[in-house]
Design brief:
- It is a single chain.
- By secondary structure, the chain is an alpha+beta fold.
- The chain folds into 5 domains: 1-39 and 395-426, no CATH class; 82-114 and 294-385, no CATH class; 128-203; 446-499; 501-654, Heat Shock Protein 90 (2-Layer Sandwich), CATH 3.30.565.
- 56% of the residues lie in helices and 12% in strands.
- The chain is built from 20 helices and 17 strands.
- The chain has helices at residues 14-77, 83-92, 125-140, 144-157, 161-177, 181-192, 195-198, 208-223, 227-240, 250-266, 268-272, 286-297, 333-345, 360-363, 392-460, 466-498, 510-521, 547-563, 595-600, 622-632; strands spanning 2-3, 10-11, 98-102, 108-110, 309-310, 316-320, 327-332, 355-358, 370-373, 382-385, 506-508, 530-535, 543-545, 569-578, 581-587, 636-641, 647-654.
- Strands 4-3-7-6-5 form a 5-stranded antiparallel sheet. Strands 12-14-15-17-16 form a 5-stranded mixed sheet, covered by helices on one side. A 3-stranded antiparallel sheet has the order 8-10-9.
- A hairpin with a 6-residue loop joins strand 6 and strand 7 (327-332).
- Helix 3 packs antiparallel against helix 4, helix 8 runs antiparallel to helix 9 (227-240) and helix 18 runs antiparallel to helix 20.
- It is elongated.
- The two termini are 55 Å apart.
C-alpha cells in the first residue's frame, strides 16, 4: 500500500504489478519466438547461399590448378637450355618471380652468389715490363696521359685476347681520367670490333668489356646527354638483358645492372621514359636476380619438393620443377594473390561475395564459412568464401525483419503500458470512489447524528428555558449549514465538470464579499481559539466576478484555513490592488505546504497526508472547486507557502470596467 501521488489516497500497487507481469511475459515470449524464427531463417538462407556458391569455388579451384599446371609445363619446356637462359626464359615469361637452377649436388648453377677467385695472370716476357710501366704511370706517377700511351703499346703487342681486353680497359680508364670521352668512345668501338678481345673473359668468368662500357657511360652521362650517350645506354641495357648469347657471372650482372639503373634514372627525362617504361621495368630480371641471391644466402634453407611450400625468405614460396629439384621456382605470396585475383576478375560474380586465397598458415585463423582445398601442387592452400554480406537482397530482407521485430516490440510494449495505465486509473478510481463514499458517509453522519440528538432532546420537552431552546436551534442551524455547504460543493463541482456555468459576471464589491463569506463560515472564526484579521481598504475598486461564486471561493478558503491551522489559529483575509487586478489573500498559521503538495493541492479529492490521522473533516473538493470557479471568472489562484510557516492562498481577479 502507498499513497497516490494524484489524490493522496491509499492505493495498492500489487494488482498493477501482477497485471504488468501477465502482459509482459507473453510479450517477451512472442518477441523471443519472432527473434528465434528470424535467426533460423537467417541460418537457412545463409546455408542455401553457401551451397549455391560452392560450385563457384570449385570452378575457381579448377582454373587455379590449371593455371599452375600451365606454369609448370611452360617452365619445363625451358629445361633443356643453359642455366642462365633457362632462368631468363622462365622469369621474363611471367611464370614466377625468380628461378634458381641447381646441379645434381644442389649447388647453384645460375644465379650464383659470389664470383670465384681469379687465377693470377701470366704475362709474356715482352709484355710484362710494358704492363708494369703502364700501371706505374697510372697509379704511382698519376700520369694518365703517359699511362694511356703505355696501355696502347700493350694493345698493339698483345696476342692473347684477355691481355688485349685488359689493356683496352686500362687505356679507357686513363682516357676517362682526362675527360677524353670521345676518344674513349672510339676506343670502345675499336674494342668491340675485335671479336677475340670483345668476348674475352677473365679467369673468374667476368666480362671486361661490359664493365668498361658501363664505366664510360657513367662519366659520359655526368658530362651531358648526347646521342652517343643515349645509344650506348640502350646498347648496354640490351646486353644486360641478353642471357642467351652473352654469358657472364650473375654477381657481375647484378652489380652492373644496379649501376646502369642509377645512370638510367639520372637520364630518365631523355632515356628512361623514352619507351614509356621506368628503369626497373627496363631490366625485368634484376628483381629476380636479387630474390634468387637472397634465397641462396638465407640461413636454414627449406628442403625443396614438388609441393608449394614456404621458403626461408619472408613471404616467398618455393616449388621444384621436377622430382630431382634441380630447378626451383620462387613465387611471392602477393604474386599468387594476383594470379587468383585475375582468375576472379574473369568471372561475373556477386560483388557482395568475397572469395580469397588462403595460405596454409592463414587457414587456421580464417573465419570463412566455406573453403575448398586447392590440392596438388598447392597442398594446404584453400579457396575461401567469406560469409558476411553474401547477398544485398538477403541483407535487405534481414533489415526489414529487424524493423518488423522492433516495431512489434514497441507496439506490444506501448499497448501493454497503455492497458496497465488504463487499468491503474480504473483501480485508482475505484479506490477513490470507495474513499469518497466513506468520507461522505462520515461527513454526513456526524451532523445528522447531532441534529437527531438535538431534535430528540427538544421533542422530549426536557428543555423549558427559552435560552436553551434557542441554543439548540442555533446548533441545529449550524449543522444544517454545514450539510448545505457540503451539498453545494458537490453540486458546484458536478456543474463545473459538465461544463455547465451559471455565473453572472459583473461589478462586485470586495468588502461585501468578504463580509458575506466570514458570516457564512460562522462564529467559529471569532472563538477564543481563533484570531481573525481582516484587511480590506475602503473604496477598493469592484472586481469583475460572480458574487455568489466569489463568496463560495472565500468560504472554502476560510474553512480550509480554519481546519489546517494550529490550535491557536491566526487567520487573515486581505485585499489590495495589483495593477489592473484585485488580489485577495487568505492566510493561516498552519504547518505550510511543501512544493510537491502545492503542485497537487488543486486536484479533486486530494488531501495530502493529513487524511492519515483522520482528524480533519472534508472530502478534498474545496480547493478544486476554488480553482474551477476562479478560472471561470478569468482569474488566477496560487499558493505562497513554506513548510512550517503557514500558507497563503492568493486569488487575483480583474477590476470591473465600471470602475
Amino acid at each position: 500500500m502507498r499513497l497516490s501521488r494524484r489524490t493522496g489516497h491509499a492505493f495498492s500497487e500489487w494488482p498493477v504489478i501482477l497485471l504488468f507481469l501477465l502482459l509482459m511475459v507473453p510479450t517477451v515470449g512472442i518477441l523471443m519466438f519472432v527473434m528465434r524464427a528470424n535467426q533460423l531463417e537467417r541460418l537457412a538462407s545463409r546455408q542455401l547461399l553457401l551451397e549455391a556458391y560452392r560450385s563457384q569455388l570449385r570452378d575457381v579451384r579448377a582454373r587455379l590448378t590449371s593455371r599452375f599446371d600451365d606454369l609448370m609445363k611452360a617452365a619445363r619446356q625451358a629445361n633443356d637450355t643453359s642455366p642462365a637462359s633457362r632462368f631468363a626464359s622462365i622469369v621474363t615469361d611471367g611464370m614466377c618471380d625468380s628461378v634458381v637452377v641447381l646441379d645434381a649436388n644442389k649447388s647453384a648453377l645460375y644465379p650464383t652468389v659470389e664470383i670465384p677467385p681469379s687465377a693470377p695472370i701470366t704475362w709474356p716476357t715482352n709484355l710484362a715490363s710494358l704492363w708494369s710501366h703502364a700501371e706505374f704511370l697510372e697509379f704511382q706517377q698519376n700520369s694518365p696521359h703517359e699511362a694511356a700511351h703505355a696501355y696502347e703499346q700493350v694493345v698493339d703487342a698483345a696476342v692473347d685476347p684477355l691481355l688485349t681486353a685488359l689493356a683496352y680497359r686500362g687505356q679507357l680508364r686513363c682516357l676517362l681520367k682526362q675527360q677524353r670521352l670521345n676518344e674513349g668512345l672510339e676506343l670502345l668501338v675499336a674494342w668491340e670490333s675485335n671479336p677475340a678481345a670483345r668476348n674475352a673473359r677473365d679467369s673468374d668468368g667476368t666480362w671486361p668489356l661490359i664493365a668498361a662500357q658501363v664505366l664510360w657511360l657513367n662519366d659520359a652521362a655526368a658530362a651531358g646527354v648526347t646521342n652517343d650517350v643515349i645509344a650506348k645506354n640502350e646498347h648496354i641495357r640490351q646486353t644486360l638483358n641478353d642471357y642467351r648469347t652473352v654469358e657472364f657471372p650473375a654477381p657481375q650482372r647484378r652489380f652492373l645492372m644496379k649501376q646502369w639503373q642509377q645512370i638510367d634514372n639520372s637520364l630518365a627525362a631523355d632515356v628512361g621514359a623514352k619507351d614509356g617504361s621506368p628503369a626497373a621495368a627496363r631490366l625485368p630480371t634484376l628483381d629476380a636476380e636479387e630474390l634468387a641471391a637472397a634465397w641462396l644466402t638465407a640461413e636454414g634453407r627449406t628442403p625443396v619438393t614438388a609441393t608449394l611450400a614456404l621458403s626461408n625468405v619472408d613471404d616467398v614460396w618455393q616449388i621444384a620443377l621436377s622430382n630431382d629439384a634441380t630447378t626451383v621456382l620462387l613465387i611471392r605470396g602477393i604474386t599468387l594473390q594476383q594470379w587468383f585475383d585475375t582468375l576472379l576478375s574473369a568471372e561475373s560474380s556477386n560483388p557482395d561475395v568475397k572469395v580469397t586465397l588462403l595460405s596454409p598458415s592463414e587457414v587456421t585463423a580464417s573465419d570463412a564459412a566455406l573453403m575448398e582445398d586447392v590440392g596438388l601442387p598447392m597442398r594446404g592452400w584453400r579457396i575461401a568464401l567469406q560469409s558476411d554480406g553474401l547477398s544485398a537482397t538477403y541483407q535487405a530482407e534481414q533489415l526489414v525483419t529487424t524493423w518488423v521485430v522492433i516495431v512489434l516490440a514497441i507496439t506490444l510494449t506501448i499497448g501493454a503500458l497503455a492497458t496497465i495505465r488504463v487499468i491503474r486509473r480504473r483501480l485508482q478510481l475505484a479506490e477513490l470512489q470507495n474513499d469518497l463514499v466513506d468520507t461522505v458517509a462520515h461527513e454526513l453522519r456526524t451532523p445528522l447524528a447531532s441534529m437527531r440528538l438535538l431534535t430528540d432532546t427538544l421533542r422530549s420537552g426536557q428543555l423549558t428555558e427559552k435560552q436553551h431552546v434557542a441554543e439548540y436551534l442555533d446548533m441545529m442551524a449550524q449543522e444544517n449549514t454545514r450539510l448545505t455547504r457540503m451539498v453545494e460543493n458537490f453540486l458546484s463541482f458536478s456543474r463545473a465538470k459538465r461544463g455547465v456555468s451559471s455565473l453572472q459576471l459583473g461589478a462586485v464589491d470586495v468588502a461585501d464579499v468578504v463580509s458575506a463569506a466570514v458570516g457564512a463560515v460562522g462564529p467559529k472564526l471569532y472563538g477564543p481559539d481563533c484570531q481573525l484579521l481582516i484587511d480590506v481598504p475602503p473604496h477598493l475598486p469592484c472586481v469583475h466576478a460572480d458574487r455568489d461564486a466569489l463568496v463560495a471561493v472565500l468560504i472554502n478558503l476560510l474553512d480550509n484555513a480554519y481546519k489546517y491551522s494550529d490550535p491557536v489559529r491566526k487567520i487573515g483575509v486581505a485585499a489590495s490592488t495589483c495593477g489592473d487586478r484585485i488580489q485577495l489573500r487568505v492566510s493561516d498559521n498552519g504547518p505550510g505546504l511543501t512544493r510537491g503538495v502545492q503542485r497537487r493541492a488543486f486536484r479533486r479529492f486530494y488531501r495530502g497526508q493529513r487524511q492519515l490521522n483522520q482528524t480533519i473533516s472534508g472530502c478534498g473538493l474545496g480547493l478544486s472547486i476554488v480553482k474551477m470557479m476562479v478560472d471561470a471568472m478569468r482569474g488566477t489562484v496560487r499558493i505562497d507557502s513554506h513548510a512550517g510557516k503557514g500558507a497563503t492562498f492568493i486569488v487575483e481577479l480583474p477590476i470591473s470596467a465600471a470602475d
